[in-house]
Amino acid sequence: MLIEITPESYDLELDLRYATADNITGRPIYGRAACYLHPDAAALLARAVALARPLGLRLRVFDAFRPAEAQWKLWEASPDPAFLADPRRGSPHSMGAAVDLTLVDALSGEPLEMGTGFDAMVPESHHGDLHVSVEAQRNRALLLGLMTAADWDFYRNEWWHYQVFRPRGRYPVLTDAAAGTRMMPGATP
């Protein structure tokens, strides 16, 4: 049901933060670093990659499909509905219908300045926040333009989060076992 997204197959970079301690919990959530999306979302991601390429930019993905049990771990660490979907309701990430990402200069490999880091749960992470530098505002607008041109919807509180339009009711919330992704610790091949 889900498609694996690799740097080779999609011409992008992966920096899967929840497979490392560099996330809001301070410890790895995923036992295996892997990136998956629903086929609908994967097609939109390919479109965004194609739109970024002529501008000398690449996409760097921080997270995509997030098993439902991983959503619970994030919620337990920071139950803030302004930045995390309540796992009882389900997250578009747990449907394979959302992606967290940024833009990278294709030549230097350096990420563009966005004003805050990924998963910074502060008002400055909001798309329209004017407390970040003009450069960060410009880069956020560039990312927003690329992603909306590729037919993604955005979440206003997180400059990094994009999702398929109206995912609830279209896609089921999946556990690691149901998705067959083997991303969670202890999952067997």
From TrEMBL:
Keywords: Cell wall biogenesis/degradation, Dipeptidase, Hydrolase, Metal-binding, Metalloprotease, Protease, Zinc
Cofactor remark: Binds 1 zinc ion per subunit.
Amino-acid biosynthesis in keyword set: no
Claim: Nucleotide-binding is one of the keywords in the record: no
GO biological process, one term: proteolysis
Cofactor: Zn(2+)
Domain of life the protein comes from: Bacteria
Pfam families reported in the protein's UniProt record: Peptidase_M15
PANTHER family: D-ALANYL-D-ALANINE DIPEPTIDASE (PTHR43126)
Protein name, as recorded: D-alanyl-D-alanine dipeptidase
